[in-house]
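PROTEIN–LIGAND DATA SHEET

This sheet pairs a single protein chain with one bound small molecule, zinc ion, given as SMILES. Inputs appear in the order they were entered. The predicted three-dimensional arrangement of chain and ligand is reported afterwards as a token string under its own label.
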Amino acid sequence: MRTHHITRGDTAHHHPHVLRVNTGTWRWQCDCGGASCRSSVVQLSWREAVIGALNHATCLAA
Ligand SMILES: [Zn+2]
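PREDICTION REPORTED AS:
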């Protein structure tokens, strides 16, 4: 009987990249299509972009 192993935290499939768009403005983007574009109006600091990327990778359990 084969055990259906559900990988908890699908972080292996999410590798968000933090990109600098302008001086002092950063955003993150993921290969899955996830990105901080939705809040493009808001200028993210590098730290905020990194946090957003981490949140994307860790919070996307579904
Ligand atoms: Zn992703």
